[in-house]
Amino acid sequence: MADERFSEQTIADAIGRSLFIRQTLERHPEQVQELVASRSLAEPTTKTYLAERWQEFRSGVSTEPDLHKALRQFRREAQFRIIWRDLLRWADLRETMGSASAFADICIDGALAWLYQDACEQFGTPYGTDSVSGDDVPQPLVVLGMGKLGGHELNVSSDIDLIFAFPEKGETRGGRRSLDNQQFFIRLGQRLIQALDQITADGFVFRVDMRLRPYGQSGALALSFSALETYYQDQGRDWERYAMVKARVVAGDQAAGEVLMETLRPFVYRKYIDFSAFESLRSMKAMIGREVRRKGLENNIKLGSGGIREIEFVVQAFQLIRGGRDRELQQRELLVILGELEALELLPPDVVSELREAYVFLRNLEHALQGIEDKQTQTLPEDALNRARVASIMGFPDWEACLKELEGHRERVAAHFANIIATEEEEVGGEADFAEEWHEIWLAETDAESSRTWLSSQGYEDPEGSLQALADLRDSRTVETLQTQGRKRLNQFMPVLLEALTQVDNPSETLVRVLQLVNAILRRTAYMVLLLENPGARTQLVGLCSESPWIARQLAETPLLLDELLNAESLYSPPAKEELQDDLRQQMLRIPFEDLEEQMESLRHFKKAHILRVAASELKGTLPLMKVSDYLTWIAEVVLDHVVDVAFANLVSRHGYPRREDGSACETDFGIIGYGKLGGIELGYTSDLDLVFIHNADPELSTDGDKPIDNAVFYTRLGQRIVHILSTQTPSGQLYEVDMRLRPSGNSGLLVTTLRAFEKYQRNDAWTWEHQALARARGVAGCADALRAFEDIRHAILCEPRDRQALRQAVVDMREKMRSSLGTPENRRSETFHIKHDAGGIVDIEFLVQYLMLAWCSEYPELTQWSDNIRQMEALGQVGVLSTDDAEGLREAFITLRSTIHRRALQNLNSQVSGDAFPDERHYIQSMWKKVMID
Hints:
By secondary structure, the protein is α/β, with parallel strands linked by helices. The chain has 5 domains: about 10-270, Beta Polymerase, domain 2, CATH 3.30.460; about 275-425, Nucleotidyltransferases  domain 2 (Four Helix Bundle (Hemerythrin (Met), subunit A)); about 435-565, Four Helix Bundle (Hemerythrin (Met), subunit A) (Up-down Bundle), CATH 1.20.120; about 580-800, Beta Polymerase, domain 2 (2-Layer Sandwich); about 805-935, Four Helix Bundle (Hemerythrin (Met), subunit A), CATH 1.20.120.330. Strand 10 (about 690-695), helix 32 (about 710-725) and strand 11 form a beta-alpha-beta unit. Helix 15 crosses helix 16, helix 20 (about 465-475) packs parallel to helix 23 (about 505-520) and helix 24 (about 525-535) packs across helix 25. It is globular.
């Protein structure tokens, strides 16, 4: 670094301000030398320079992995340059935003150009009819950049919102096989996202968000121009107008893109003055405000009060209202539009000046926060070191001075926002329109007798107990020490809650359950605001807590789940497996694989939120038992698949990929086998996961990274990491309790077994009960090839001919052993019946079915198709091993008993019921056991 501006002090300042800069200098000194040699860091970072540098990185690309590597190395260099100049204040805000946006444009367009050519070589060139000439012409992909990317205002560490479009429908020509244009561009789009978003050993380029496309997550990844135009004309919503204000063609055919933008302009900018934009923006701001309160984002300089989003809303309100008439407002850059608003006399000069100064300050602060670790964040730091770093970057002597300046800007922005957009009703205030008695009861302003009489008249079945529960809350230490705002919101919320409870059959009992939640959110009153503002959510809360103490406990443990109550339609319509996968992928898109703590927290919330939907649907009666188990099992499978990806990516980043015999790097060659309830698609709300880990790699080979380890060690660590992610207690609890005792040799066996060793053990050393367990096993996550190989082994083992008499005796002996250790003691059997373990219970049916599977699969190999009890019973009836009546009788008894266990779980009750319960089912099961296993 020969430049005179690169003194030791300058370098020390940069290193002190940014971990990212320090780590890049330590890990990639040769690349830093190269980037400085190409252009001094003292020189502005221009789009022309970035384009020239990309061509140098691009010159060595001949394969898709080469492309991925080149993009990521280019990112490392560009990020270093942009963050260095920004944090040392060698660049102003315009340069930082402009260079970050230009870098994104170049990466997207560069990756697209290479991938488009490669896709054309595989599938041919897509053709369509030119609307003017009528000739057949090649079709390009047009990429629209939304949000800050579209406005040339990208952050130094930001995700990018994209929409993919192509001009005309048609099909490809000249390839090995033809594709219709939409399929071609969807595949191209998927590869483009991977090129930018996928985390490799070299990192990633940009997190890509496609949710702004028509129909959101469920929409096609790429649409034709006419399909886009039709969608926005017929179904375009207010928030999509807001998003489209900044839309810009960032990659692909610019001329075709401009044609598209012209067709969409009437949707964005109405010919008349459109004051309805105020209301839609107000609604969006209210929604964001609820999110801020719910997630505690008050220290978020983008979303919090007086933050960047409020400045954007002010500016874009005027664009949407007057942009159709005042074409000067049809621009994208916020600072440019602010100038136009002053010129058009739509805002006073002093307001424009204060908004401009606040925007520049907040955006510079945002870049300071992100540049420290090259992470997307808008949250103010809480530790002293990072506060000192931010103050230094922003040019303040200490954090207090920086914070004081920030608070001044935020106050001014909030005031202008309130004057222009917000409503007087936005603040939660005023007394709710409820009977005064509810306020008096909560505040204990009437005598006990009057309160008991009132509660009783409103349907409270235990008024005395309810008054005591309210007194306990009022007198608690937490309530006594609440600050003024917290006490005010509690006093607003409690009368509303007491009135809402009159809508359920058991108000007193439900009150006790809901108070668990109230105690949990006393110091997080944003949740009370959520319930105050949303009567529908309040109704769902008291209804669900009335029916299930288990749900009440879940909400108290994780108040963030209250968000699920806002939409009754989705609450009672849990998503299918494909939608679950997409939902989880979108939620995890912005969390790096290496951020294990955040991954684990997000997975726990994902699981709890979706299990709440299943429980709510079961209580409402929209999901029968079999579907409940399906959904609970799908949730576990989707979680397991993601956990494998996270754990695998973490190990690969350290040690490289496990090698195969042919020298290639594998997908994962690893599989998770589900046993028991998971394998049998019979998960309950509190079920643990019986898992076995297998892999199909050569344990003698090693990985291909800089720090290679034996494949066997790699997969053992992979298994350990998966168990850690699943079972560790975090602030949100445990993801799943994991039981690995069914692996070969049990707790004394290896954590992860090769398929070859698994097959050998099953053939030579497994006990009968282990073959019984195999009847309910199936692959649930991991590499498809490995899971297919397991299924072949399972089929072969189950189809081995067996001595039926010896098999029967072994199964009976094991059943008696289990019953004596887990069932009800003989002296209490008249009082209690254990639905699972006692004679005539569920385990009798399971053992009976497992015996029949092992005894008859050799003659009827098709029996191995299923791993769940219900379909195994049906299959046994279809092949004639059981009579149709017996198969149906067992099935009905099994469903009856399992339904009871499910319902009791939602009531926090165990599997033990009265000794005289289910007499008919128990008699039938015992007669079938005697018929098949004894006689």
